[in-house]
Each structure stands twice: as C-alpha cells, then as structure tokens.
Amino acid sequence: MRGKAIRIMRAAVLTLGAVGAASAQTTGGAAVDGLALASQRQCLGCHQVDARRVGPPFRAIAERFQGRPEAADHLARMMREGSRGQWGAIPMPAQTRLSDIDARRLALWILSLKDAAAD
Q1: What percentage of the chain has pLDDT greater than the value 90?
Q2: How many CB atoms sit inside 10 A of residue 58's CB?
Q3: Which parts of the sequence belong to the Cytochrome c domain (predicted)?
C-alpha cells in the first residue's frame, strides 16, 4: 500500500508542477525560469536555445516533438535515462541527478520554445 501512496503523491507533484509551468508560461515567466533551470542543471554545457553545440538546440527539439501529447513525458525520461542515435552519433548521457520534477519542468519549457518561435 505504501508504494501505491508514493506513486499517487509523485503523480500529484508532477501534475502540480505541470500546472505551475503552464501558469508561468501564460505570464511570460516560463522562458526565464526554464533558462535559469537549464543553466543550474548544466544543460547549457551541451545545448543552447537556438544553436547547436554538442547536442541539438532546444528549439529544434521543440519543433521535432511539436503536437505529440506524450512529448513532455518522453523528453523528461530521455533526460533522466539518456539516449543514443536520436540526434546523431553523440549520445545523451543519463542525467541521474536530475529530479523527475526538474526533468518535467525542463521538458515543458523546451516544448514551449516552439510556441515562442511562432510569435
């Protein structure tokens, strides 16, 4: 029973995080918060918003996953578990120190960049 309660609480926290990110996007704070979080978590060592570095630019990731309802969950999972062959020969190492909540916040921010480019 305890495991089920933990899963329910984790889902509730992720949902609240998504709601918070959505409300930040409507107020224009998501871009600043997302970029700050990406900087704090050392994402900018390999990625930039508009230019390729070691990994793809965040905006290109947003464009690739545009319109996919599972995109935020997929991106958050790829951050935490790593991936290979998605964007070329250099693999994305697993970011095991990145919390589920921060991975989800980063994924939502990255996906919001597609909307920001259209403005």
Answers
A1: 67
A2: 25
A3: 29-114
Domains and CATH numbers, the chain: 2-118 (1.10.760.10)
Q: How far apart are CA 36 and CA 87, in angstroms?
A: 24
* Res 58 pLDDT > 50: yes
Q: Which of 23, 28, 10, 5 is nearest to 76 (CA)?
A: 10
Query: If we measure between CA atoms, which residue out of 74, 66, 76 comes closest to residue 113?
Result: 66
pTM value is 0.71
How far, in Å, CA of 77 to CA of 48, rounded?
20
Residue 71 structure tokens: 């995109």
Interval 75-118: pLDDT, tens: 999 999 999 999 999 999 999 999 999 999 999 999 999 876 55
